[in-house]
Design goal:
This protein is mainly α. It contains 14 helices and two strands; from the N terminus they run αααααααββααααααα. It has a two-stranded antiparallel ribbon with strand order 1-2. The longest helix has 49 residues.
Length: 369
């Protein structure tokens, strides 16, 4: 195993789940303590046992469908160079990498390595990961704007609920505006460099790192610009059908991801059609706000902001903390466990299979000679 592989695998170390789990346990403990002050034990038990099992089953089904959509998309983006098993490994490890890194950083850099080890050349792996990042962020920006236009003014929760980011007080609306502007700027830069003028993008990076203050980033700028040109050349070969399914699968994935929470809230609360639209819209706002979280996988941040957005949909507002726990167990902590389980299997599959295949390749080459 080379140095690069060792460094990447170190960043995927299953021990990294300890920090987000500790953060989550801390937040969950606080929720349980706060809830116990407002609700008695019988109220909590009755609310949980009175859940609509059909909606819970729907939530699990939507979660599975969403993951199937992820597997389909990565296989489509790679022009089916990844088989179904490899695609499943890539998606689970991608979710795991995202779960153990801060939301502002993400786990996409590691995924280039993972896809590359599945037999796809580095340039193509980089192109597919970059394209995925652009598609996802473009969805956030467009969906946010559509939500603000279509859904009523109450899309933002009570503005008196302020919180702090790095000690600076923000309202939910303020955090959303900052997040969506940063995402929009990043998406515009990535789209320009990846799909419009990659060579001009490289030139700008080199020029920007030409002064003394930024000179130490010069090598990074040259490498990033070259990678962008390589990725752009690969993506420019694609036809309209490729782009159609890439965009459609992205919309499908994120719609399923959000609708899962609709099902979960409906399991514990009777909400009408308009409230379903409001819940769906608020998730988009909440997700954008969560992207500025400095904690691994938004651990703690997501649980904290959940009641701010959704407590009004429950007869007992405090019960939203319990639903937040279920939501995070389904959509976050489950992937920490799956990642820790799949990672050793993937390492054996990729690295050991290479070692066993090398003698066969040598024999075949010898026969040809």
């Amino acid at each position: 195993m080379d140095d690069q592989s060792s460094k990447v695998l170190k960043s995927l170390n299953p021990n990294k789940i300890i920090l987000p789990v500790l953060i989550g346990l801390g937040v969950f403990s606080y929720f349980i303590y706060a809830i116990s002050k407002e609700l008695d034990f019988d109220q909590i038990v009755n609310s949980i046992t009175g859940a609509h099992l059909g909606w819970i089953a729907a939530a699990v089904l939507v979660l599975i469908i969403r993951d199937a959509g992820y597997v389909f998309r990565i296989r489509h983006l790679t022009d089916k160079q990844l088989n179904w098993l490899a695609s499943v490994y890539v998606i689970i490890l991608w979710e795991f990498a995202s779960a153990v890194t801060p939301s502002v950083v993400g786990g996409t850099a590691v995924v280039v390595f993972i896809i590359n080890k599945e037999g796809i050349k580095f340039g193509r792996s980089l192109a597919y990961v970059m394209l995925t990042a652009v598609l996802d962020n473009l969805f956030f920006v467009v969906a946010s704007l559509v939500t603000l236009i279509v859904v009523p003014a109450e899309i933002f929760p009570d503005t008196t609920n302020n919180f702090e980011v790095f000690g600076v007080p923000f309202s939910v609306k303020g955090a959303f505006i900052i997040s969506v502007c940063l995402i929009g700027l990043y998406t515009a830069v990535m789209t320009y460099g990846l799909l419009i003028r990659p060579r001009a993008f490289k030139w700008l990076l080199i020029k920007a790192t030409g002064n003394r203050l930024l000179k130490r980033w010069r090598r990074w700028a040259v490498q990033t610009g070259s990678d962008m040109i390589l990725a752009s050349e690969i993506l420019q070969e694609k036809r309209k059908r490729y782009w159609f399914y890439a965009i459609l699968s992205t919309i499908f994935i994120w719609t399923a991801r959000y609708f899962m929470l609709n099902c979960l809230i409906a399991a514990f609360s009777d909400i009408n059609v308009m409230e379903h639209f409001l819940v769906f819209g608020r998730q988009i706002i909440m997700w954008v706000v969560m992207l500025i979280s400095p904690t691994p996988g938004s651990a703690g941040t997501a649980e904290f902001v959940f009641p701010i957005f959704f407590s009004e949909f429950f007869k007992l507002a405090a019960f939203s903390g319990i639903v937040a726990i279920f939501w995070r167990l389904f959509t976050y902590y489950a992937y920490l466990g799956l990642g820790a389980l799949f990672l050793p299997r993937w390492i054996r599959r990729v690295f050991q299979s290479k070692k066993t295949n090398e003698p066969k390749k040598v024999q075949e080459e010898a026969k040809q000679v």
